[in-house]
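Protein: Glutathione S-transferase omega
Species: Elysia crispata
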Amino acid sequence: MSQKAYSQGSTFPATKPGVLRIYSMRFCPYAERTRLVLSHKNIPHEIVNINLKSKPDWFLALNPLGQVPVLQIDDKIVPESTATCDWLDDVYPENRLQPADPYRRAWDRVYASYNGSLLSNDPFELHTNLEGVKKHLQFFEDKLRARGDGPFFGGSKPCIFDFMFWPTFVRLPIIAIIKENPAANIDENEFPTLETWAKAMKELPAIKDDAFDVERHAIFFRGHVKGTPDYDMFLDE
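Structure follows.
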């Protein structure tokens, strides 16, 4: 199946019985969360990318909000990144990502909510208030250090929140590039626990297989800001 994004007027790509599908967009941080969980848990799936500026009618029929990610298998449809990640962990319980401790699981939900405030309603519009960004990072620095069983928020192994936070964290340096402000770069000496976490995350096969580097994210982001995002960027390389 082509990685190119399906747009308005395209024909619905027929599903196959029993085959899990994710409707995604290659640069979307929310869809990236779900793709990372799929990859980390080695769940067989196919990917259908969507042009979010010119959404196909058949995609809007699946999710009237017009947002990715959306999971589909047979007659089951699950939208939204948190719901899709939790559903995948419940339906495919091997290599469990949700903490067994209810208290820890509850706090992971709190972390996810706080992480969400780093992104506006537009998933690519990062806050440019550096003090606000650093306040969020300090929160996660302190919480991860307090858990004390790292390097991951899940301890010796990643949990769902690790994959929820990563797409946000990896996009923060875009501020430094777009605003041409080196001060926006994350100082590893200021957040040493998060730096150790980031190094451990980068070694995970799911991260290596899915992630773009910050420069490519910035190239896409510039097009998005101008209203001309290229959803098929870099596919011809």
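Remarks: Residues 21-95 form a domain with the Glutaredoxin fold (CATH 3.40.30.10).
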